[in-house]
Backbone:
């Protein structure tokens, strides 16, 4: 198992038309999913209740629904959560009752649907106004993270790289969010945190490739920008794949063993790491190339490349 | 060339490892359920310690570890069932007003370790507990305090024998109407001399002369901070009554309060007590049965009176508009049994202002009936034509009417409540009224079982994830992979040590555990970068020692660049996040920083020690 990718020589730049069309199609599908199906926003963003109740024996969900309806919560969404004895109830904010009243009433309403005792494992209530604030804050955070990263990459590399990396990040975010919209997986605060982590991770990948491109632009005497980029991606390919692989391994562990609450979070990261790996190989660099990067853009500010050459 | 370690590098790594292990160690011992006993004021006395110990021994609870720390006594129990039994036994022998008895979770480490290191602080999602975000209704607080001037002014006007005035609170203003300009001007001078915190606007309209008054901006600001602070004090008192150790009660923004109650066994009770605005009010009864009936049937209600309903029967009754004593003038209250009727009663104790009023009023009204009003404020949001409208509704019921037999002052009793209500309302009165109504705008409650399950599952995911990565690295990079695995394990130890470090106050949450898991996956990246680079250098025909050196040197800039961008995302996440998300951002940040240390510096020291000073032609990489 010495070397999985042994000095690969894949023509990434030559394939760029195909991969761009592929990405464009996926992005269009993702955007359509977001626009048409919309995100299945969790109570964090819409306001409302999430109540998790543990039964001793698996209850009949229809009985749970009807007893909730009898108590005046007809619109409550009831489903199993993790196991058949755990029930998750979601509902909109109740206009004429406090959260205290509602959770007490729900608890009372659930009793008849069980043979034994019921314990209220989790009650989450987010008022409509707080939901709105969290929505705004969340969108703001994603924007802030992107802006901060653009500035850093611009400062450390060059404008075209900065644009290229943000291009790849937006690509990753749209696709990840699109998948959540397409399959109507609940999108809550932890998913948003995962998206921000994906931004960090995907960029991490992209930076490694960019770093090598910069180094090669300075050290390789011959070759077109496309050739230099191909060489750089090939040189870092095995690292990119191995790191993504170990990250996906731990995320799978989190997804499988981490419990139901963390499922969505792990899922978002899994999708994000997958897409992020793809984009740093196929999208970020080709975007930089498309913007017409030249050797002059990469001339060393300090004599870094020359120093590396003369290392004994 | 050779790659040797200067001594300081070896010492630094060893030192970091030892300190890391020491600070991470308390987490291995974990926490024990405990009951914390502390006097409300003053130091812990030996007699209290003996009382507690005897109470537990008498209750048959013998497997207890006692710790005296400062002014508190801790009793540690083997499990939560014993803890609850223990608490009940201690409560029986101590006085609720004098001694605080609270459930607690304390470090189970031996004393030498406890003296400098504590286990990680577990978030509510791991420990179980309640998080509330409360909105303080400032407008209501301002209205209440401005309304108070109405009765003050009335008293002054009456004292000055000015006739035909009308003073009321309308649309956020205190409005006084006079018949003549002289009266108005005289009173205006009087008011502005005595109440500099008000801003006055005289105006003439038709045949009347008015003074409108509102709080000045500065006074209003003061009133707002005062209301918020008062609410925080009240909530803290209530939480102490509930028996919660280590509660968090903090102001957030200008008009919100965050309350976190870790390990609360009965979240429903906590919700009820914290959100409760129930209070009592004392008023004189107005008129007689016939007046009440006619007012109830739509007849005119005298301007000095208000229409109420009796609790239970719903029968109408008129009470004086002026209040004798309001709830916030009650400074002490306890529930008990009324000697005469044998029913539940609340024994009330008034502050000096309340007592003075009560004295004055009862002196003049012996033989007249006085009513006790039970008030509960409820604030809710209604949808009116799709627009959210906040509405405040008050439940006001007359719980008892009794003839004033004697002059009352500081202490007296009130009946007409159920035993549970008497206990609850005396708790509420004792801890002070909420200056402004609060509304819970966010609540997150996690039961203790779910908390335990979250820890178990999070721990399992972390251990399995770590094991898989270590095994993979060992297979793929052989001896170097083993070194990377060692660096990874050290990294996790350091993350836990930093999280446990005293003074940092970081909280571990479920997303926080996910952050550690994610870091273990990403932290090997630095080693992967280095090792790939070393392989490349070897392929390029460099000698072993040169390849090692170049691998570490060249990869460094890349690793730093890549990590800083992740750090930017994590910092943004931290600054915008709420509770559990912050936990994720924190472990991610700490993980990135410690992984730079272990993956670059730590692994280098080990690699140098194992291979750096040898003549090798190949490397196990």
Residues:
């Amino acid at each position: 198992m010495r070397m999985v990718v042994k000095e690969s020589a894949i023509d990434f730049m030559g394939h760029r038309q195909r991969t761009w069309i592929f990405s464009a199609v996926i992005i269009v599908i993702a955007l359509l999913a977001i626009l048409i199906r919309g995100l299945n926003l969790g109570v964090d963003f819409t306001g409302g209740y999430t109540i998790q109740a543990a039964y001793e024996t698996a209850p009949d969900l229809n009985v749970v629904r009807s007893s909730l309806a009898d108590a005046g919560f007809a619109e409550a969404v009831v489903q199993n959560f993790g196991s058949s004895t755990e029930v998750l109830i979601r509902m909109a904010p109740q206009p004429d009752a406090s959260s205290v009243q509602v959770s007490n009433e729900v608890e009372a309403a659930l009793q008849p649907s069980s043979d034994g005792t019921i314990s209220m494992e989790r009650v989450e209530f987010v008022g409509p106004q707080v939901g709105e604030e969290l929505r705004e804050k969340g969108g703001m955070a994603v924007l802030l993270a992107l802006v901060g990263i653009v500035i850093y990459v611009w400062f450390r590399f060059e404008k075209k790289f900065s644009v290229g990396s943000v291009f790849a990040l937006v690509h990753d975010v749209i696709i990840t969010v699109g998948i959540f919209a397409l399959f109507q997986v609940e999108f809550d605060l932890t998913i948003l945190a995962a998206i921000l982590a994906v931004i960090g991770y995907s960029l991490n990948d992209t930076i490694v490739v960019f770093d090598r491109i910069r180094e090669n632009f300075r050290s390789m005497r011959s070759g077109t920008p496309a050739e230099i980029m191909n060489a750089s991606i090939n040189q870092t390919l095995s690292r990119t794949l191995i790191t993504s692989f170990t990250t996906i391994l731990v995320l799978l562990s989190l997804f499988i063993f981490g419990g139901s609450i963390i499922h969505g979070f792990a899922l978002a990261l899994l999708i994000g790491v997958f897409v992020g790996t793809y984009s740093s190989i196929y999208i970020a660099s080709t975007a930089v190339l498309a913007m017409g990067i030249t050797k002059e853009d990469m001339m060393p500010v300090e004599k870094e490349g020359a120093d590396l050459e003369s290392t004994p | 060339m050779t790659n040797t370690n200067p001594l300081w590098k070896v010492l630094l790594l060893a030192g970091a490892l030892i300190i890391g292990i020491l600070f991470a160690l308390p987490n291995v011992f974990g926490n024990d359920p405990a009951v914390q006993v502390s006097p409300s004021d003053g130091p812990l006395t030996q007699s209290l310690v003996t009382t507690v110990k005897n109470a537990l021994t008498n209750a048959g609870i013998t497997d207890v570890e006692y710790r005296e720390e400062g002014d508190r006594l801790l009793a540690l129990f083997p499990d939560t069932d014993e803890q609850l039994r223990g608490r009940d036994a201690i409560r029986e022998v101590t006085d609720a007003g004098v001694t605080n008895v609270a459930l607690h979770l304390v470090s189970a480490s031996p004393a030498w370790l406890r003296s400098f290191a504590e286990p990680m602080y577990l978030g509510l999602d791991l420990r179980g507990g309640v998080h509330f975000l409360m909105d303080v209704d400032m407008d209501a607080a301002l209205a209440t305090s401005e309304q108070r001037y109405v009765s003050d002014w009335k008293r002054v006007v009456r004292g000055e024998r000015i006739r035909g005035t009308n003073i009321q609170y309308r649309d956020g203003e205190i409005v006084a109407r006079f018949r003549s300009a002289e009266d108005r001007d005289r009173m205006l001078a009087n008011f502005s001399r005595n109440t500099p915190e008000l801003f006055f606007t005289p105006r003439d309209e038709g045949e009347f002369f008015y003074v409108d008054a509102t709080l000045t901006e500065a006074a209003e600001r003061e009133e707002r901070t005062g209301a918020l602070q008062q609410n925080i004090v009240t909530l803290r008192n209530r939480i102490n009554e509930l028996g919660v150790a280590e509660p968090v009660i903090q102001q957030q923004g200008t008009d919100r309060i965050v309350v976190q109650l870790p390990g609360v066994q009965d979240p429903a009770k906590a919700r009820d007590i914290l959100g409760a605005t129930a209070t009592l009010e004392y008023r004189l009864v107005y008129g007689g049965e016939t007046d009440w009936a006619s007012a109830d049937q739509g007849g005119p209600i005298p301007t000095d009176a208000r229409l109420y309903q009796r609790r239970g029967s719903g029968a109408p009754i008129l009470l004086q508009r002026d209040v004798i004593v309001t709830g916030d003038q009650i400074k002490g209250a306890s529930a008990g049994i009324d000697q005469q009727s044998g029913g539940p009663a609340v024994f009330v104790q008034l502050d000096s202002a309340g007592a003075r009023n009560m004295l004055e009023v009862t002196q003049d009204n012996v033989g007249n009936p006085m009513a006790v009003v039970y008030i509960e404020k409820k604030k809710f949001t209604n949808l009116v034509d799709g627009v959210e409208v906040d509405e405040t509704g008050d439940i006001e019921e007359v719980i008892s009417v009794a003839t004033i037999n004697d002059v009352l002052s500081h202490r007296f009793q009130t009946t007409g409540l159920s035993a549970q209500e008497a206990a609850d309302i005396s708790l509420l009165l004792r801890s002070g009224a909420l200056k402004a109504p609060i509304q819970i705008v966010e609540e997150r409650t996690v039961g203790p079982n779910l908390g335990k399950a979250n820890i178990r599952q999070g721990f399992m995911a972390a251990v399995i994830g770590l094991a898989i990565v270590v095994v993979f690295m060992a297979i793929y990079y052989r001896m170097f992979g083993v070194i990377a695995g060692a660096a990874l394990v050290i990294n996790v130890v350091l993350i836990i040590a930093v999280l446990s470090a005293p003074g940092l106050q970081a909280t571990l949450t479920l997303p926080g555990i996910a952050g550690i898991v994610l870091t273990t996956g990403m932290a090997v990246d630095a080693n992967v970068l280095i090792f790939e680079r070393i392989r490349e250098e070897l392929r390029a025909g460099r000698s072993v020692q040169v390849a090692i050196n170049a691998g570490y040197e060249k990869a460094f800039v890349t690793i730093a660049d890549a990590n800083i961008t992740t750090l930017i995302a994590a910092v943004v996440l931290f600054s915008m996040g709420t509770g559990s998300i912050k936990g994720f951002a924190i472990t991610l940040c700490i993980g990135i920083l410690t992984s730079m240390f272990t993956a670059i510096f730590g692994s280098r020291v080990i690699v140098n020690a194992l291979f750096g000073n040898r003549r090798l032609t190949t490397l196990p990489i």
Remarks:
- Chain A touches chain B through 83 residues (CB under 8 Å).
